[in-house]
Amino acid sequence: MQLPPPSQKRLQQREELVRRLRELLGDPDQVIHRPEDLVVYECDALSAYRQQPMAVILASSAEEVSRVVRLCGEIDIPIVPWGAGTGLSGGALPLSDGVVISLARMNRILDIDLENRAVTAEAGVTNLAITRAVEDRGFYYAPDPSSQLACTIGGNVAENSGGVHCLKYGTTTNNILGVQVVLADGEVVDLGGKSMDQGGYDLLALMTGSEGLLGIITEATVRILRKPESARAFMAVFDSVESTGRAVSDIIASGMVPSGMEIMDRLSIEAVEDFLGCGYPRGVEALLLVELDGVAAEVEARIGTLETLLRQAGATELRRADTEEERARLWSGRKAAFPAMGRVAPDYYCMDGTIPRGRLPEVLHLIQAMSKDFGLQVANVFHAGDGNLHPLILYDSNAPGELERAESFGAEILQLCVRVGGVLSGEHGIGVEKRDLMPCMFTDADLDSQERVKAAFDPRQLLNPGKVFPLLRRCIPGGSMHVHAGELPFPGLERF
Amino acid sequence: MAKPTRSNRSAALEAIEVQVVEAEAAGTPVEITGGRTKAGLGRRDSLPRLDVSALDQLVSYEPGELVLVVQPGMRLSTVEELLAGENQHLAFEPPHWGEEATVGGTVACGLSGPRRFKVGAARDFVLGIELVDGRGQRFRAGGRVVKNVTGYDMSRALTGSFGTLGVLTEICLKLWPRPETQATLVVDGCDRVDALALMLAWAALPLEITGLAYLPEGGSPVGRLLARIEGPEPAVTAQLRRLVEGTAGSISEFGEAKSAHVWKQLRELELFQPGADEELWRFSLAPAHALRLVEQLEGHGLLRSGLDWGGGQVWALFPARVAASSLHQIALLLGATAWRFARGPEDANDEAFTPLSPGVHRLNQRLKQAMDPKGIFSPGRMYRPD
């Protein structure tokens, strides 16, 4: 993995840059520049790639972000925006000849408007803090990425974050009304607001998921929903991962939209049981977790159909959570799957492709076959409802050649996803991680069009350069999320 | 793995590419058209037409995936029939405004019907597109799966671009299962202050309310409040009961057929067809501001108005030649955005859309420039060219 080579001219400006930033911001504590202090910022949650920026700016307002961006424009310094650093694709990896602007200090909720069902928050407010601010009134913010305790709303917008419930409630892009953005020239603009439409082109849509390449999000207005009055979880046991995949397709085809549908295979179930003992059956091939939520009368009306479908699809055992406690217990195993895997193998490698749901049985079967060919185990635990796979390839980085085999295996999985009509990333983003795989999915013309959009917003390529777009337009298998000895970056966070 | 290449070309597609390349070479702007049912939206220039009606093929429909891929010229009614056969639908409830309405026009105009406030807008259902840009380059963006963060979300950005960024040649849409049934609660003789208060309160309930509108009753100061509930029959009945219990006034219920009819009427703007000396406006705003908007519009000769999307969309009829800039100014001050509908082919509709802030306007121009450098796709459709 390469980043654009650092410019000596920029590196030589380091001292002057730090001096001018400190002058600009007034409070010297807002500029971090000593190597020992910069360690915290040398990588995001894709910790395989690390490098220190020349400085980190702790901005406290959009106006300050704007001033820093203007200064960087004046002296040609690239900028990487930073929320909480929980991203999994290296989107916030610093540039050694650039600066990081951290939005973490901008953590105020600015407006709670229950009448219009909207909350406006500064970029550094965490995802969960938005829900916390309105839950006593019965509302919540729907997208629930696994890192929601730590990840920021600004980062969520930049990455178009998902979560377990996006099958029914959509990802970030379906749940925001407006953003305030600092553009590459330092101008501060508002895109959208509290109305359901904005005038002109839908720039809010372009900004969402732009991975910090089109602007720096300083504020977001999100749509909040009333908490569903009923949520019921089910667990169905199957004798193969393939038949579990078929059950998912059957449920979707039946006209039901569960709020979540998650598959775990044998390896993950056993690992979770060893780790947590949450009561999943042992010795079974696969299980499917399904949750229905909404109006109580509607949920009740669908339970019978769901149970019949699961049995018809071959479920050998069916469990229904009748209490909130049982529901939490059913989900606890799923939420612990990633950390549990760290006890099964020294290292794992997490993929994030999405495929058409109907191809689940075939793709899962092929992944198992590939696992034999590569001589590496793979665990499957993923968002089956929207076809978002997270195969975890288990390997040992100390065993000669295993890392390379794992990488080849991972690349083959992602290429398989694209081949069956899917995409490279369902929710983790491209960042630096999958950047070089982009030509496997997009033609030159496709990529040209996206680069022209980039140039329209940031003609000088100062915002997060080296991310998303391949340096070479060839399909080169790249890396993914590596975890060694179970040491997840942010070990305290649940992983989905 | 080899780089992807795409060579599926039909004669109709090639003809369009040729027209774009010729227009680009000659520097002569064209207007992309389909069924011409949305011609009243935006500013009007008489430009040679680039008609995509011939691109009307179904590319793929996999009901189990809840995904449909069609060419833009396919009629909306054809698509809806096809989906109904599988108990599916376009949940954003696109308006037709004429039998010839196409999927391409729907996406190009970014139009959504009454269910929008609950399930999302047209753009939330566009998963991927294929497009020929202003340089004649054909490219794809997005994909055919529901969860995708690979590359910029150009599909959403192209939705509602009124044919000014490129020619859509393929559209992938997300489908939803059709609710089993529907019913509508009707409150007649409802004062507008009460109506808005009820709509705001009901929209915030954890119920499957998928339509909330307040419509005028022939010139009287009161109107009819409509609340649609969709889902399995027992759930619809249970929810209706809950709404009725807490509501005073003249209450009635519309069963499935009548409910479907009344929401179709609203979607098709049957109550808001302008007379000979009238013009139609549409405002999108924060729902709680709806009455403040209506009160201000009354100061400018408002004839009749109706609230949709729980207050988030206001339809308004004015006498012809009302001062457009004043209405846009009102919209701006309330954080709203407005559309003026052209009164006919002769109406240039110069101030069709509320002006953008200078910063956002500049970004719009830069995006246009990136996609259509020579400005061959209706350069003046949305805003007056500088």
Please give the most extensive interface between any two protein chains, plus how many residues each contributes.
A-B, 103 and 94 residues
How do the helices and strands follow one another from N- to C-terminus of chain B? HEEEEHEHHEEHEEEHEEHEHEHEEHEH
Count of the domains of chain B: 3
CATH classification class of the largest domain in chain A: Alpha Beta
- Count of helices of chain A? 17
As a percent range, the share of strand residues of chain B is 25-35%
Question: What is the CA-CA span between the terminal residues of chain B?
Answer: 46 Å
Secondary-structure arrangement, i.e. CATH architecture of the largest domain in chain B:
2-Layer Sandwich
Nearest-integer average pLDDT of chain B? 95
Number of strands of chain A: 19
How confident overall, as mean pLDDT of chain A? 92
**Proportion of residues in helical segments of chain B:** 25-40%
- Please count the beta strands of chain B (DSSP E, at least 2 residues each): 17
Structure description:
The complex is a heterodimer of chains A (496) and B (386). Chain A has helices at residues 8-12, 14-25, 35-38, 62-75, 127-134, 153-159, 166-169, 203-207, 241-253, 266-275, 296-312, 324-335, 337-341, 360-374, 402-419, 438-441, 444-457; strands spanning 31-32, 55-58, 79-82, 99-102, 109-113, 118-122, 139-140, 176-182, 188-192, 216-223, 225-226, 230-238, 260-265, 286-294, 317-320, 347-350, 378-383, 391-395, 481-484. Chain A is α+β, with helices and mostly antiparallel strands and 496 residues long. Chain A folds into four domains: 8-102, 2-Layer Sandwich (Uridine Diphospho-n-acetylenolpyruvylglucosamine Reductase, domain 2); 109-226, Uridine Diphospho-n-acetylenolpyruvylglucosamine Reductase, domain 3; 230-335, Alpha-Beta Plaits, CATH 3.30.70.2190; 341-484, Alpha-Beta Plaits (2-Layer Sandwich), CATH 3.30.70. The two termini of chain A are 26 Å apart. In chain A, 59% of the residues are buried. By secondary structure, chain B is α+β, with helices and mostly antiparallel strands. Chain B has helices at residues 11-26, 76-84, 103-109, 116-119, 154-158, 192-203, 233-245, 256-267, 290-298, 324-333, 358-371, and strands at residues 31-33, 49-51, 58-62, 67-70, 88-89, 126-133, 138-142, 166-174, 176-177, 181-191, 209-216, 222-231, 250-254, 278-284, 304-308, 313-319, 337-340. In chain B, the strands form five sheets. In chain B, strands 3-4-8-6-7 form a five-stranded antiparallel sheet. In chain B, strands 11-12-10-13 form a four-stranded antiparallel sheet. In chain B, a hairpin with a 5-residue loop joins strand 11 (209-216) and strand 12. At the A-B interface, strand 9, helix 8, helix 9, helix 11 and helix 15 of A face strand 7, helix 5, strand 9, helix 7 and helix 11 of B.
